[in-house]
Write a structure and sequence with these properties.
Rossmann fold; 5-stranded parallel β-sheet; about 65% helix; Tetratricopeptide (TPR) repeat protein; ATP binding
Length: about 900
Amino acid sequence: MTGHQRDRRQYTALFEREQEIAAAEQAVDGLCGRIADGEAILGGLLLYSGEAGVGKTALLGRLRRVAAERGCTVLTGRGSESAQSVPFHIVRQLLQPALAPMTPARRQELLGDWYDVALPVLGIAPPLGPPADPQGVRDSLDWVVTQLAMTNSPLVVVIDDAQWGDAESLTWLASFAVRLRELPLLVVVAYRPDELPENTPAFNDLVNGRGNRPVSLHALTPAAVAELVRATLSREADDPFCREVWAVTGGNPYEVVELIAKAQDRGLRPAEESACLLRELGAAARGSGLVTRLERLGTSVTRFAWAAAVLGTEISPRVAAMLAGMSPSEAAECADRLREARILTGAADLEFVHPLIATSVYQAVPPATRTAMHGLAAWAITNAGHGAAAASRHLLEVHPDDDPDLVRQLRAAAQEHLAVGAPEAARRCLERAMAEPPPDEDRASVLYELGCAVLLTSPSTTINHLRAALALPSLPKDLQVEATYRLSQVYAHNGQLVDAAEVVAARAAEMPTGSGRMRLQAAHFLWKGIQYEEEGAEQRSRQIADLADGLEGRNNSERALLALRAFDGMVRGEDAVRVAELNDRALDDGRLAAGMSWTNTGWGFEVPSVIGITYAYTDRLDRAERLFSEAVRAFEISGWSGAHLAFAHDFLGLVHRRRGNLALAEDFLREGLRLAGRLGPGLPIQWDGTCLLVETLLARGHLAEAEAVAEKYSFRPPYPPAMVMPDAPSVVGRLLLARGRRKEAIAELEAVGRIMEERGRNNTLWAPWALDLASAVAEDNPERARALADQAIRHAGRFGTDTAMGEALRRAAQLTEGDEALDMLGRAVTHLRRSPCRHELAMALVDHGTALRGVGLAHEAAELLREGLALAKRCGADGLVETALGELKASEEEGAAGSGG
């Protein structure tokens, strides 16, 4: 394309675009002006919508020039119809030019903890690690762009042809868009509204909703077309000719400029007698007309154009020549002729003049030729050292042909896709490998890998693939255990805990004694033990005790069984010293053993989690805090910022709740719920966070906030099939009681009690139903209330922690009077002074002081109330502070009156 032709095309595309150009300049000037004036950071999103050829690309070019003139850093990316299956294709176009030239030290400084996560995603480092969490990958991209915006502000990100964007890039963009108004950053996106991809609902929602109104580009008016015709061909062009140009093109700027150029090439006189020829010329600019025009250029030129269409983007003349089967000199000649025909442009790397041309040429390639060229393209990319993932978009287009090497390449590509957090791309590769099909000896392994690839996105599909793999005799023995374990995990995460327990039990029964069998037994006990309404709970507890009590923790299978045995003992309220000793044996010198870390995919995070939870409820809060702090750190470093990180925040919140750091606990729990909320509503992880937050808010005395959280997250029956920490129905009963809905609370707590007693779950800290039920029935049935309290004291005594004993005595004292109540409260304070749980001590001090004031011991009461008040303030227990202040004031007044008398 000559410089004159390029200028004419840009002029035409921007003709009659004054308002659209003004919107672009206003957006850039607004961003730069606020920064220059030191005003509050306020970025934004600018959307341009229009059909193909309406001038979006030219408008974005104008915007880029304006931004550069204003001193902005401009990042540019473009969707490609041929590269839609390449994960993070747009993201890499945007960020590679900014990061690739940096020194490793500068990149490390910029990326911080996200260094190892972001670089493989951006194609700057090889993807060699385990599967990455997609949410963590998106968070790493958030960090990269945020750092660039803060260090290179103002920043303008321009994305063209977003309708052809890869799903991973568009999903990231949609999630990142909510932060734009916090950053010196303008994002500009152009797209065809009728061609938005169906597999990116979040992006579709971004451009169609959330209050974002795109700037719509429309076709040129007849008057504008007439002006362009006269400016290009002749000022003497008559009205019928100009009107026909508009009619043939519909005012589409791209088609207008092409038709005018062809009329000029043909030497048409712009008069009415030539108008009848315009329709034929217009047809040659698109579809079959373009193909016919291409064929007239000769077989070699046509074949080179086909090769370019197969490559799609960043078209290397050398590689295109190889695909077309011609010499470099012949390819250079073909490229020149295609430039002259306004089909290709560029020099070192070629590109099609317009995506419409690329689509038409690609669709014209005979299927057999297209497949062969894709195969050659994959070979060329792999031979150049770019890896299987880079070649995979071509491998996906090759026809199945029983090729074991193709299966091997696709499996390798899938692993690379998983390592950068692109499970959907991995799934496509493995499904294509299955269609090849793989050799019989590899079929089961490919099915297993396919099941693992969709583990986080499609539980039902995962189940089908893993079951199919396990049904084949060719699945290697080491993978049989792995596939069974993963199948049980996906059953569990899908809420099918009974199926999860049964599938590992069945496989374990078929296996010889050894670590593999023990691993499946541990999984069986795990999925059985966390079922809320478990059948045969007592029998399962005896079985795991018989199996685990004599183990020393010599390997990870033994450690897992010990951890699950300790957790079961904790839930049942067995001797806490013994429970903690079993839990200690599940660790290796006080730390998680190698192969059982938080991010280990073999065992999963469930085993470390039950170790931490057990410590949290046995007053070993230092160890629990260390474990869950390690979890947060490990998940953040690994980029696992979805359900795993939400879980870690929830249970670090549990530790702070047990310590009595209520405000800090609330912060962790709200962050856990925020993280979980990004994954969608109603997920199991939200139950733990909601339950803990409601309990924490009640402890703080914030009843209205607790009610709001319960309403927002539907914290009520039906409950999930898995246990919640703490026991969800117990907390629901406590909330109902706090709201004054006593009859509903009694019904809820009685139902909880039946379930707990049937299953021998007697931990009064995890499930304090009996003490709350005692308070609820005390008015109408004091004898029953006292019996319930006595039962709770017995269970707390068996468990033996100072927290359990102190809390049971404190709550029981509320149901009696006189010396007995004072004695109970005194013992409660003694126990809780030895406990790490400061909020419980604060409540006991205030209760004891209140009771002493009630029997006329005002001075003794005031001393305890002052201590309780100070501790309640440190805990953030606002409701308790208010109670303590009232009681202290009354005690001081009574003490003063007594002294005066």
